[in-house]
Design goal:
The chain has a domain of 125 residues. 29% of the residues lie in helices and 30% in strands. The chain is elongated, with a radius of gyration of 28 Å. A hairpin with a 6-residue loop joins strand 3 and strand 4.
């Protein structure tokens, strides 16, 4: 399998005008924040990505610049139920519309269903891929069914016996108060 990293300097407008498409199979080790999530495990795991640009004409006749992104990966995370290794599949299918300025992006992003980003001649596609995969990760990674039995008890059997042996502090106070009446 040929490994190809996404570009870090992509002219999004030219990419969309040409209706270009890019794709590749990158290594997880090329994404610093994702490697931190996996605690350094699975650096050779593949991250498959593709992107294609599109020009659309809106209702007013203006051109809209779009980028469609697809990412598939399996990240080795720690199952929070059994604390074993869990291969968590992540799939990203997102579309982004680009506008000319930060102000326009901020104003339109609130109302738009799609994400609105600022147009750039040196857009970092690799960074966008990493951001989207990080946001797609589950909050609590876990197996569907753990291969080992997970202890789900909140207390061990000796806990109840230990509390039964302790004397009630109010009973102790009652005996002290009873001694004063003599």
């Amino acid at each position: 399998m040929k490994h190809e990293s996404p570009p870090t300097h992509l002219d999004v407008k030219l990419f969309a005008q040409a209706a270009n498409a890019l794709g590749g199979h990158d290594l997880l080790s090329n994404y610093e924040r994702l490697i931190r999530e996996t605690k350094g495990v699975g650096a050779d795991s593949p991250l498959n990505w593709s992107a294609h640009g599109e020009l659309r004409i809106d209702q007013s006749g203006a051109q809209q610049i779009w980028l469609h992104l697809t990412v598939d990966a399996c990240l080795p995370l720690v199952c929070q139920r059994c604390m074993g290794s869990a291969g968590v599949g992540v799939a990203v299918h997102r579309s982004f519309r680009f506008v000319d300025s930060e102000e326009a992006a901020a104003a339109q992003d609130e109302e738009a269903e799609e994400d609105v980003l600022v147009l750039s001649r040196e857009f970092n596609l690799a960074e966008l891929i990493e951001d989207e995969v990080l946001m797609a990760l589950p909050l609590v990674p876990r197996h569907e069914t753990c291969s080992i039995d997970v202890k789900l008890a909140v207390a061990d059997p000796g806990f109840d016996a230990a509390t039964a042996e302790k004397r009630n502090p109010f009973a102790v106070l009652a005996t002290l108060q009873g001694d004063k009446s003599r």
